[in-house]
Amino acid sequence: MKYAITAALAALLLAGSVSAQTPPPAAPAAQPAVIEDFKPSSLNQPGQEYPQVNSQGYARFRITAPDAKAVKVSLGLGGRGGTTLTQGADGVWTGTTEGPMDEGFHYYHLTVDGGIFNDPGAKNFYGSIRWESGIEIPAHDADFYALKDVPHGNVQQIMFPSPSTNTQRRAFVYTPPGYHKDSATRYPVLYLQHGWGEDETAWSNQGHANLIMDNLIAEGKTKPFIIVMTYGMTNEVKMGGLRNFDIKPFQTVMIDELIPYVDSHFRTLSDQPNRAMAGLSMGGFETKLITFANLDKFAYIGLLSGGTISVEDADKTPGFRDKIKLAFVGFGSRELEGGRAGPPGGPPVDPRANAEALKASGFNSVFYVSPNTAHEFQSWRRSLREMAPLLFQN
Amino acid sequence: MKYAITAALAALLLAGSVSAQTPPPAAPAAQPAVIEDFKPSSLNQPGQEYPQVNSQGYARFRITAPDAKAVKVSLGLGGRGGTTLTQGADGVWTGTTEGPMDEGFHYYHLTVDGGIFNDPGAKNFYGSIRWESGIEIPAHDADFYALKDVPHGNVQQIMFPSPSTNTQRRAFVYTPPGYHKDSATRYPVLYLQHGWGEDETAWSNQGHANLIMDNLIAEGKTKPFIIVMTYGMTNEVKMGGLRNFDIKPFQTVMIDELIPYVDSHFRTLSDQPNRAMAGLSMGGFETKLITFANLDKFAYIGLLSGGTISVEDADKTPGFRDKIKLAFVGFGSRELEGGRAGPPGGPPVDPRANAEALKASGFNSVFYVSPNTAHEFQSWRRSLREMAPLLFQN
């Protein structure tokens, strides 16, 4: 079975992917005066002083390359091609973003004499089909994904056999605190997918999904559940591959291989009411296709900057209103500005209006907007924080 | 309690650490003709064609940096400063090592116009207190750490509270295949430490400890056991920090915090006969200090390119001969050439003679030499393969 993908959905998703690469809309011409309280980014490699961030969200870079002709950083403002560093008398290149960045996590890279390299000061995170440098702009609400002295769940790497792809495939499995101690309890499972160009490491490394859960559970705000994260790029790893997206290979891995493996190797509740699927960007796209085609397997759906669910979607899918207990849709506020969530050149898509209409029609539809963030991980961290307490409540 | 560290041991370890940074002895002037069967390294980022390796062990690099003045690779032969790339008409820099490299894993980096960067084609591995590029020279015996269609154990990240350091610390725990299915079985535990400048990711990422165990277990060659890997650099993260090494902070984390956490969160056999400790390089140094001071907690000791155990060591430590069931010492063959295992400028140390004398004195001493490898992960992968079947046999 091959699933048809509507042009609007594909375009919506592609628009999302593109916006991940582009900065938020141009900032006002007059930037606030830079406060000199810069500190090393929390994602720096051990002992590295740069890159730095300040309390306003500016980022400052320092790169040693004494004989280079030009060094640029891909992060910056408003389509002006990032931040150009300047070389000091000591041969070292430095520069500060022209304005504040959005709170949260950002991928970036350097261009040194025309070559693309990572910043040696920063840790790397898998995005854009490569390991890129990452920087964390301190967020006012960073506490919900902070590493605290609370009971911690584990994130474990599993290798499961995949006859359909003739490989041993990797997934990461978050088990909540207490999973190892009480060998009688069984847990619901959320299958949580990354976006285009990312992989199964993203939700733990960039997303802090484990810490978000640990903290929610410690505060009694969510049921403890298992999260399973695997690689969703079963299509050819190429730019533009989404235009020929075929869900079937990944659906086979997910439905026929991964879920049975997890249910036989972990203490899961394996019935439909105890299984959810969610994903960000392309992962939301995959989530919608897979859950709509497998209503007997999933009861909760989450699309994070990755599509929308309309009344029409629900009504043209027999059984949807009975079997699905929640449709959670989240976006970053900047994704909804100026119709950016709509397909370029196509009919406008308004995910909020869709969610509200679905809710008005009597369905448990929840729409969340992350303030002042774009198509980026701060939106998705917050979306997970909002969605988790709503799962497995029926 | 503060442990005195003998100058000879410290020097031995430092010699080891230094040799990790330096290439093997100069190759013969006449190199074999290069066979043009280059393929992408198995450690490349997805879709990346370079770096490449050939069947003889040559490595070939290709770096895009059209406006650069000079690009070098730190890998190469015989102290001649690595491999200098040359720029082609297309602006791309290419070059091949002057001779074959040792089989197995190597760290490396680029120097681009005087700045240190990673190769955008290769995945990164934590070593030298930074994430470095990695390349894999195909080994004739690579099968023992290959990802095969056998039952796989899991590698899970745990975060355990550490009051002594006022942090939540990370460890990785390998649980053998079957651990999740049979909730009655309890397992012995090997605490396995990385080397200087590395971290708790090294034994899984570079070392393939999980795959080595999966394969040994599938062939019935070793008892299944749990492996725990944590960060051993509790001292200040600085070059040369080893000269002022104090084992106490790490020993407190290991003995008072990590072991109790593991024993209460995993199905371990927690008595002394079912606990082992081993480590590579600095990790071997730590292993010797901690196990000798805690004979009531460990029954098996492994030092991998990280020290030696002499008859004198055994005899000056009351209880050692009764309580310790195995002293495993491994080295790469190149570490033993020309007295390199001995401390520079100090009295010679011969770990093989020490091991043989200890064995002749009636103790279960095993000495292993990895053929044609140096102070590098291929030696340690092989040492783990040799050591694992000998553990927990008493």
From TrEMBL, chains A, B:
Residues 1-20 form the signal peptide. This is Carbohydrate-binding module 48 Isoamylase N-terminal domain family protein. Gene3D superfamilies: alpha/beta hydrolase (3.40.50.1820), Immunoglobulins (2.60.40.10). It comes from the Bacteria. InterPro entries: AB_hydrolase_fold, Esterase-like, Ig-like_fold, Ig_E-set, Mycobacterial_A85_antigen. Pfam families: Esterase. It comes from Asticcacaulis biprosthecium C19. Keywords: Signal. PANTHER family: DIACYLGLYCEROL ACYLTRANSFERASE_MYCOLYLTRANSFERASE AG85A (PTHR48098:SF1), ENTEROCHELIN ESTERASE-RELATED (PTHR48098).
